[in-house]
Amino acid sequence: MEIQHLPVMSRFGPLSGAVGFHWDHADTAGLSFEGDSLLEPAETESFAGFWFEELEASDRLSFQTALRVESASVDGTGYASIADPEDPVFFTGTRTFVPVSGGLGALYDFGNNTVFRLNGQAVERAPAAAELFSKGAHHASNTFEIGNPFLDEEKAQTLEVGLKRPAPVPLRRQRLLHEL
Fold first, then answer.
1. What count of other Cβ atoms lies within 10 Å of the Cβ of residue 77?
2. Residue 175 within any structural domain of the chain
3. Is residue 171 part of a domain?
4. pLDDT for 25-67, tens place per residue?
5. Taking the model in full, what pTM does it have?
6. Is 152 inside a domain boundary?
7. 85 lies in a domain?
8. For 47, phi and psi rounded to 5 degrees?
9. Which of 2, 46, 56, 49 is nearest to 24 (CA)?
10. Which one, of 71, 73, 55, lies nearest residue 63 by Cα?
11. Number of structural domains the chain divides into
12. Cα distance between the two ends of the chain
């Protein structure tokens, strides 16, 4: 669900944005062709809230910011240790994660459909049930997968610089579009 708010006039320019939330529930399991379990039944429940704002500082310059906070709970069974393959140790339980992601960006319109952008992000992602609890042959990828129930959130920091300009439409296509 997403709710956009009406633009608000600030001393720096119009401010527009949205807030929202996302809920997800997944029950997963995986069996090999032989009937062995690649992934014992696992249950994932997640709820995330997000907020996005854009400030139009001028006709050409705008700034953007976003924040996303999630609560994810993954319940399942997998290997805790395979130090002794004849007698593996199992983990059965629930792992809970709270990934937080945010970003800042600036856009500058040079005109002629050319936009310069600069974005910085710090993002986090909770591991999926298969990454935590897999334990067997995966025939689609022809691999043997072993999850790690002790994984933490995956984290990344990025900086992106870009220049965007759409390709020009060929004259023949312009004529066809005009005729339509």
1. 19
2. no
3. no
4. 988 877 655 656 677 888 999 999 999 999 999 999 999 999 9
5. 0.77
6. yes
7. yes
8. -140, 130
9. 46
10. 55
11. 1
12. 37
